[in-house]
Amino acid sequence: MSEENTIDATPAAETAVEDVPETGARPPAPEAPPKNRRRLFAVLRWTASVAVFAVVGAGTAYGITRPERTDIPGLSTESDGRWTFPALSQPALPAGAPLAVGPDNKDETHYAVLSGLLLPAPEGAKADGAFKADKSGAVSVDAFLEEYTPESREKLKQQLEWDGLRQITGRGWTMADGTRTHVYLLRFHASGFVDAFEGCTFDAPLDGVSALDLDDDWNTAKNTQASALPMGFPGAGAIGERQVTVYEEAPPLLGDEQTGLGCLQAGDVLGMLVQSRKGEVAPVPFHQTVILQGQLLS
Hints:
Layout: H1 35-56, H2 58-61, E1 126-127, H3 141-144, H4 153-162, E2 165-174, E3 180-188, H5 192-196, E4 212-214, H6 216-228, E5 238-239, E6 242-249, E7 257-266, E8 269-278, H7 283-296
Helix pairs in contact: 1-6, 1-7
């Protein structure tokens, strides 16, 4: 990792230590913070660091799929919860087609095969048998709408038809700890239709979810990122040029699982990630998945 892409985060063990008196007596060690605070600090440092890497450019962010644990500030142990993804690369474009983000593509249209922009499952994942997609990854509108409450599906289906939906592709997997992840990419006829879809917003009527609130960990790290960036640098909440919003299910939960929702607006494509886990969604792998999918859409 080059010097420009590193962040100064010197481990506490390397900071200066006060002189020890000649008698050999050492001052008492400071009291360790509570376990839950240490975990939160680690999560926020990880998310803030990765978010800064992400806005620098797609090539840098791909490094979080399988980095050495000491390569990223705040990640010096194997207990941070990250998943290991295959090496990522964007699919080839048709001859003469522009990149989705560039001066010659003002509408940010994606010309690559949509399934090629879909995030692969991480190591150790098993295909979710309940996820309905064909061998190519194509998902029908009705299968996609099973993510929502039965009473909301007809309205959302009409909206997708009126708002120029072209196709949906997706992938679902389950990890050893029971975390279920569903990733969808919805391609519309133009970028203006992506903003109009109401199925990936604060009020999204997800099935089995009580209510959604903004993800506190994500937004705290986003604000940290914004204050650390120089004037004129890409704004907080963006991954590359992608606008990202992350939600979490607010208590009281309807069942014994919590659900997280990630929404990525990327030109004519909407990326939507739904992740559920018994107890609560683990923020590190959830945010990692959102960031990597955002980079593939850049």
